[in-house]
Structures are given as C-alpha cells and as structure tokens.
C-alpha cells in the first residue's frame, strides 16, 4: 500500500499526470472508509435517537376534577437493536475502544437471551404512593404477550438518576423515579406486546406493535 502511494507521488512530481493525482485522492478516500472507527455506523446498528424513538412508549393519566397528574411514565423496551445503539451511545460518552464496545455487546446479547427488560421513568403524582416494586406498593406492573399471557417481573431495580442516565434517556426529569424491570423471556420477534401499570391511583397501558 505504501509502495503504491510512493509511486503515485513520484509520478505526480515528475509532472507526468494529473490523472495520477486524482487516482491518489480516490485511493486515500477509499482507504479511509475501510479503517474501522468506534461508534461508526455499521449494518444493523440503528442511530441512537431512532432506536430510542422506536422502542419507547409514553402515557399520562390525569384526574377529571382538577387535572392533577396521577401517573406520567415512559418505558423503553431493551430490544437487541436498542441495546446495540445504547452501547454505541455509551461508547461515545465514555470514549470506549472497539474491544470494549464488543465486550459490552456480548454482555447485552447474553442478557437478551434470558430476559425481556424495560427501562421505566415514572412520576406517580404524589409522594404518598410508595415506590413501584416494594411489598407495600399500591402499584403493579405486568407484561402482556400476544398469546394473552401476563408475566410478572423477576426483578425491579430502582436506578439512581445522574447526568449520564439523562443523556441516554432524555425524557427523565427531576420529579421522576427510574427503574430497570426484568421479565422472564417471553416475547417473540415481530409480535405485539404491552406493559401494564395497574394500581389504586391509575391504570395505564403502553403498547408496542412491532
């Protein structure tokens, strides 16, 4: 490769050809496209904003009497395409190299085989309602499948809010509580599903038709 570049430069210096210079520019451009770049677009890797929009749902429930918010929530389903886009977003924020990116993607693939996971941001309208997932909670979240099954979560982890998390999920606000909710793997590719929040203050369904 270096020998070809040297020959082209020599030809150009001898004044023999403008064509050789053009060939050199084309050659260097093609070469730049072949050099791997961390976070660059690759097949099956959606841009992050597109992936976030595709896999996020949102709903708000208010009282009729005084228009008080009973629940305002967002949920992002962690599909494999979203997981990949999220890893690439993290790579950009943390300046990760390609080996680190691939290691994270392998971890995401392993989890995706075991669980259907949702990141949830919720404002419940009042501090009187306990956190989702606690034994005393007045809230309950279930995953409804296309087959009509209702799956209970195997874990509901409250996630501390920070600036990095808000970069990944920009719908988070200071009044929200954030959770990572895992269900046993039960969703099939291409089938619709819904996440249902039920409780004393309000009921709300988020539906994904994929």
What's the helix and strand layout?
Layout: H1 2-13, H2 18-34, H3 48-55, E1 56-62, E2 69-77, H4 80-94, H5 98-114, E3 115-123, E4 139-144, E5 150-151, E6 155-158, H6 163-168, E7 177-184, E8 193-199, E9 204-208
Antiparallel strand pairs: 1-2, 2-3, 3-7, 4-5, 4-8, 6-7, 8-9
Helix pairs in contact: 1-2, 3-4, 4-5
Query: Tally the helices: what do you get?
Result: 6
First-residue to last-residue Cα separation = 47 Å
Q: Could you describe the largest sheet, including whether it forms a barrel?
A: 5 strands, antiparallel
Counting helices, strands and paired strands, the structural category is alpha+beta
Which series of helices and strands comes N to C? HHHEEHHEEEEHEEE
What is the radius of gyration?
A: 25 Å
Overall 3D shape: globular
Tally the structural domains.
2
Oligomeric nature of the chains: single chain
List keywords for this structure.
210 residues; alpha+beta; four-stranded antiparallel β-sheet; globular; disordered N terminus
Describe it.
The chain is α+β, with helices and mostly antiparallel strands and 210 residues long. The protein folds into two domains: 2-34, no CATH class; 48-208, no CATH class. Helices cover 36% and strands 27% of the residues. The chain has six helices and nine strands. The chain has helices at 2-13, 18-34, 48-55, 80-94, 98-114, 163-168; strands at 56-62, 69-77, 115-123, 139-144, 150-151, 155-158, 177-184, 193-199, 204-208. The strands form two sheets. The chain has a five-stranded antiparallel sheet. A four-stranded antiparallel sheet has the order 5-4-8-9, with no helix packed on it. A hairpin with a 5-residue loop joins strand 4 and strand 5 (150-151). Helix 1 packs antiparallel against helix 2, helix 3 crosses helix 4 and helix 4 (80-94) runs antiparallel to helix 5. The two termini are 47 Å apart.
């Amino acid at each position: 490769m270096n020998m070809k570049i040297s020959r082209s430069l020599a030809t150009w210096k001898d004044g023999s050809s403008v064509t050789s210079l053009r060939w050199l520019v084309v050659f260097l451009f093609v070469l730049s496209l072949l050099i791997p770049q961390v976070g660059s677009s690759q097949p099956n890797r959606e841009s992050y904003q597109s992936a976030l929009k595709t896999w996020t749902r949102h709903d708000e429930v208010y009282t009729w009497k005084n228009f008080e918010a009973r629940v305002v929530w967002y949920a992002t389903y962690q599909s494999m395409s979203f997981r990949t886009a999220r890893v690439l977003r993290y790579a950009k924020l943390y300046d990760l190299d390609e080996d680190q990116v691939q290691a994270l993607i392998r971890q995401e693939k392993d989890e995706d085989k075991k669980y259907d996971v949702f990141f949830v941001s919720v404002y419940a309208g009042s501090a009187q309602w306990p956190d989702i997932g606690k034994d005393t909670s007045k809230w309950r979240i279930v995953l409804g499948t296309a087959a009509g099954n209702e799956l209970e979560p195997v874990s509901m982890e409250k996630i501390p809010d920070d600036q990095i998390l808000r970069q990944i999920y920009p719908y988070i606000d200071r009044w929200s509580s954030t959770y990572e909710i895992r269900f046993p793997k039960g969703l099939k590719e291409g089938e619709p599903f819904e996440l249902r929040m039920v409780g004393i203050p309000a009921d709300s369904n988020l539906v994904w038709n994929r």
